[in-house]
Amino acid sequence: MTRIAFTNVRIFDGSGEDPYTGDLLVEGKRIVEVARLPKRVSTDDARVIDGKGRFLMPGMTEAHTHFSWNDQPSLAAIQFMPPEEHMLWCVRVAKRYLDMGWTCAIGAAAAKPRLDVVLRNAIDAGEFPGPRYLAGSQEITTIGALGDNTLPHMKFEELSFGSVCSGPEDIRRSARTFIKYGVDHLKINLSGEYIAGLPAEMSPFAEDEVAMLAQEAKRYGKRMAAHARSSESVKQCVRHGIEMVYHASFADSEALDMLEAAKDRHFVAPGIGWLIRTTYNAAEYGITEAVATQMGYKRELEIASASLREMHRRGIRILPGGDYGFAWMPHGTNANDLQYFVDYIGMTPKEALMAATRLGSQIMQRPDELGQLKAGFLADIVLIDGDPLQDLSLLTDPAKVQLVMKDGVVHKDCATPVPPHAALHLAGADTPLQEQGVKEALAEMH
């Protein structure tokens, strides 16, 4: 059995404790010992990696992943990629995530029906490197809502971004089709989205349609996720047991009360990076700050910042990730969310790292073997050159993410050259809050 010893490392173990200097020993797939200096692990018959004071932490979980979003500036550009090329794209992007220390990911919807399932199966079979992955369905939507990009003069639904349904029986057919394909969870678009020309505060699904999705998911033992920006859509998530709530920007006091009362059953992955980067970093692609303001994104960012701070105060679980894979927020830069959690939600850097590690193990449904550096846990481990608790941007730099281990196997080694395209540093990623309106909205919460 392979033994690997990390010595002289600063250990962030994901338990909530402050980092400490120590050693860690891996045998096979699992961590067998974590020692705090002056205690040391045995290095007999082990490969020894001298950390020289570098930062050792659990692998991270991206809770709102779209591997099939292809770093393009529009939904149409994503959907119209031919399926053969699209599958190859997903394989390459999965490796990019693992290169950057994301050892787990939740598929928040695929651009084509089976992309997520095929990718998950290939990763699990060891055919290609990638995070351990839970596969989502296409976005289940309704006529005229987010994900319905069929043209009025064409009835080819296979060209649509989502699975377009109308009425409970359509929902049943769509859900059962994706379940047949082998998804881990079903995704439904319960609200609008400005970039699709739809108000984010709209809630297009009738109650009996959402109830049908929940009924079918329960029947087949599947989880559910929802694109839910509007307040009503958040309430629908709670009423119908949709565990993974994506966005939740406009959650009002009633929605917050409902989430808090059921906080042991729900996760919120807000995708706040989408709001920030679309507002301030998409000018090259035609979305200037003025355009983003007109669309509604600046206002949504102000309101979401305030509501997410309140969720954090109430102990509702908030996890990083969401909608990376557009041109102005490409795959591989996902760790920008951690600084955004500090700047916009009021987390400490430690809380942000805990959201990416320990909370990640909970949304992956494996809290007893993932998300911490602890004896008996699976060896998903990342070695960072520098201290992310002092500078979270280190986690966006492929040269600083020096070693990545998944299941006890070193995927990215300290000696591995870093390809220049592994991730992109985006201008302004670490800029502080820029708008007085955001500051005022946050101040009102105190």
From TrEMBL:
Annotated source species: Variovorax gossypii
Assigned keywords, A-Z: Hydrolase
Membrane-spanning segments: none
Protein's name in the database: Amidohydrolase family protein
Ranges where the Amidohydrolase-related domain occurs: 55-409
PANTHER family from the UniProt entry: ALPHA-D-RIBOSE 1-METHYLPHOSPHONATE 5-TRIPHOSPHATE DIPHOSPHATASE
Domain of life from the UniProt record: Bacteria
CDD domains, per the entry: Met_dep_hydrolase_A (cd01299)
GO molecular function, one term: hydrolase activity, acting on carbon-nitrogen (but not peptide) bonds
Top-level taxonomy: Bacteria, Pseudomonadati, Pseudomonadota, Betaproteobacteria, Burkholderiales
